[in-house]
From TrEMBL:
Coiled coil feature spans: none
One GO term (biological process): translation
Source species: Anopheles darlingi
PANTHER family, A to Z: 50S RIBOSOMAL PROTEIN L9 (PTHR21368)
Protein name (database record): Large ribosomal subunit protein bL9m
Keywords: Mitochondrion, Ribonucleoprotein, Ribosomal protein, Transit peptide
Alphabetized GO MF terms: structural constituent of ribosome
InterPro entries: Ribosomal_bL9, Ribosomal_bL9/RNase_H1_N, Ribosomal_bL9_N, Ribosomal_bL9_N_sf
Family indicated by similarity: Belongs to the bacterial ribosomal protein bL9 family.
Amino acid sequence: MLGKFATGVSALLTRSTVPLLQNAGFTPKQYWTGTILNHASSKKYQAHSGTSKLLGVLSTGPALCAAQPLLEQQTRNTFVLKRRTPPNLYKKNQKPGKLRGRHFVYELVENRTVIKKPNLEVILTAFVEGVGAKGDVVSLKPNVAYNQLLLPGLAVYKTPENLAKYATEKDETEKEIHSSAYAQRTVNKLESLILAVVMNKDHPWVIEPWHIRTALRKAGYYVPTEAIELPATPITGPDLLKQNKEFTVTITINNLEKARVRCRIHHWSTEPSNRLPYVFEHWKQEAEPLFGGA
């Protein structure tokens, strides 16, 4: 095997490099592994006449196996092993027997790197949207709890000391600001919505809360009628001057949070020939307010 290796290496060397290697006392294997540069640069070979020329050829030649910087980084891997052949027991104060090769053959019992880790319980030190309020004990995945809560300082580990501490420091006023962990997220979703309120183009109408409830249901939001608050000024039609005009309605969530939803009026006719031209992605276009203060 070594002979084939050395033969292959010699084939890669140039004709001018091989005599220099032989005169300097090096083998093709040393050229392949890259250790020749360390030897040739030592004081032992400084006086050799062909050393300087050899170093020049090697520095311009191909780096067949140049040393690469290694990244030494610790990894948290745990493997539980057991010996396939356990060693013999020995008496007290007796010299242990010599281990043979069979004693170093192991079997894998458990690979803990692929086992799903249990959830981590933490105590929130502040309100976290979608998680909970201050003082709540929540159970999350270890990565989520560590990166999103523990590192930013939004939570602490669940211990008897922390439970006693945050049970007494629980801020009741903060709980009143948020009715639930997902209320603020619902408010943000509703306020980012541009709701299309489709009204009849041929018959008179007055916008009522159930019109807004129907438009919200078409958009994927289920809101009770009593939670919808319309503007103080009634909105009547049909009126093409109000086409694509914008007004806002207020939606109350859990009788506490309030979200202002932007709505736009669109006239629709059951007669195809009487319909208005379709505007592509009308919600992306700028709209004038229906009322001066809207």
